[in-house]
Write a structure and sequence with these properties.
The structure is a single chain. This protein has 351 residues and is α/β, with parallel strands linked by helices. It has 9 helices and 19 strands. The protein has 2 domains: 217 residues, Rossmann fold (3-Layer(aba) Sandwich); 116 residues, Rossmann fold. Helices cover 26% and strands 21% of the residues. Helix 3 runs parallel beside helix 8, helix 5 runs parallel beside helix 6 and helix 8 runs antiparallel to helix 9. The structure holds aspartic acid. The site of aspartic acid has 11 residues, from loops.
Length: 351
């Protein structure tokens, strides 16, 4: 771990506000929470001026509750970042917490060869409220997005979520709490940084690009014909059949028990086999909040493997979904999609 103190160097950042609780303040006339004008960000968060960074802001129209996030928002974010990539040292995205882990995950797959930080943050309480967590989250996200090493390279050239003093890899994070300030966790990968008196970076865990000079590739074709099937006791053949063999569906994320186990009943395995043989891609991830799938331990796991199910290792659901959207949008061939699923593309799985 190394500590980083801002050295006064003038970094330039683009702050992108998409919506969510963080950007709200009480309108004295309406006596209701309304989004505030982000061009006035320094008035709302005067602490940012102390960094002496150049911070430009950009507000999405319309601002949305993140429950309304659609892939078009991810494409708009990728477009904006691609267009302004050379103008800034880093990007901070303010986003509602509800689907932040989905957005951070998917964006990590859409941008290949990232050389600059893209830090998502938000808050549980609006920035205009006295006990808000928004200011602290924003200030830490800004400092992290601007941080450089001795050679002048960004310390965190990754898509991340910064929340409650913890910096997590975006595609490892999930929202785990709807009311306290520690809203996100990354159970299967340690924090990339922790903010205390100083921000301590866990540099050995942070991904570095193969080339700092090459521009990233932006992949904006997403195919969202994916469903998620959470296995549970009492699940019926009809339900499993409808989801696994759905006409629209190209891939199914199977949320299994423990180390990747599912019912061993003949009807279940034969539907899985039929789906796989008819060209559906089935990805096995665990319902457990931590740990990984291993289809070689139990007989039930083995039968899934022999029915053609692909190992999702220790992926979160959010990351599995984003990875599938990206791979299906990029490749027509199922073999290529399956090969991509088995690979660790952006630090999203440990094998
Ligand atoms: N519903 C809000 C959203 O996700 C909650 C939040 O911002 O934290 O946009």
């Amino acid at each position: 771990m190394i500590s980083h103190k801002p050295d006064g160097e003038k970094a330039s950042l683009l702050l992108i506000y998409t919506g969510g609780t963080i950007g709200m303040k009480v309108d004295p006339l309406l006596q209701a929470l309304t989004p505030f004008d982000f061009s006035q960000i320094l008035e709302e968060v005067p602490e940012l001026a102390k960094f002496a960074y150049r911070i430009d802001s950009c507000t999405f129209d319309p601002l949305i509750d993140s429950s309304d996030v659609e892939p078009s928002l991810w494409v708009a974010l990728a477009d904006l970042i691609e267009e302004r990539y050379d103008d800034y040292d880093g990007f901070v995205i303010l986003h509602g917490t509800d689907t932040m882990a989905y957005s951070a995950s998917t964006l990590s797959f859409m941008i290949e060869g990232l050389t600059k930080p893209i830090i998502f943050t938000g808050s549980q309480l609006p920035i205009g409220m006295p006990r808000t967590d928004g200011k602290e989250n924003l200030i830490s996200a800004v400092e992290i997005a601007a941080a450089k090493d001795e050679e002048g390279h960004p310390l965190v050239p990754e898509v991340c979520i910064c929340f409650d003093n913890i910096l997590m890899r975006g595609n490892r994070s999930r929202k785990i709490n709807s009311d306290n300030f520690r809203a996100f966790r990354s159970e299967n990968y340690p924090p990339l940084a922790e903010a205390g008196i100083n921000i301590r970076y866990n540099t050995s865990l942070i991904r570095r690009p193969t080339s700092w000079e090459a521009r990233p590739t932006f992949h904006k074709d997403l195919d969202t014909r994916v469903s998620i099937l959470k296995i549970h006791p009492g699940i019926t053949p009809g339900v499993v059949r409808n989801i696994l063999l759905g006409e629209e569906t190209r891939a199914v994320i199977l949320e299994t028990y423990g180390a990747g186990n599912a019912p061993s009943k003949d009807w279940f395995i034969s539907i899985v086999r039929e789906a796989s043989e008819t060209g559906k891609i089935i990805l096995n991830i665990t319902q457990c909040v931590a740990g990984s799938v291993n289809m070689d331990i139990y007989a039930t796991g083995k039968s899934l493997k022999s029915a053609g199910v692909v190992n999702g290792y220790d992926s979160t659901t959010e990351s599995a979904l984003g990875k599938l959207f990206y791979l299906l949008g990029t490749f027509d061939s199922n073999d290529k999609v399956k090969a991509g699923l088995e690979m660790d593309l952006r630090g999203e799985i440990s094998k």
